[in-house]
Amino acid sequence: MSKLTVSIVTDAKEETSNFIDGIFSDEMEVLVQTESEMRASIADINVMVPGHITVDPELIKSGSNLKMIHCGTGYNNVDLDAANANGTYIAVTPNVAAQSVAELVFACFLALSKKITTFDSMMKSGGWKTTDFIGTPELKGKTLGVVGYGNIGKASARIARGFGMNLIAHDPHIEITDDDVRSVSLDELLRESDFITLHVLLTADTKGMMSTPQFEMMKDTAIIANACRGPVVDEAAITEALKNRKIGGACLDVFEKEPLVASSELRDLDNVILTPHIAYCADEALIGRYQFFADNCQKLIDGEAPSMAVNADAVKDN
Question: I need a labelling partner for 181 at 20 to 30 A (CA). Which of 13, 86, 279, 304 fits?
Answer without folding.
Answer: 279
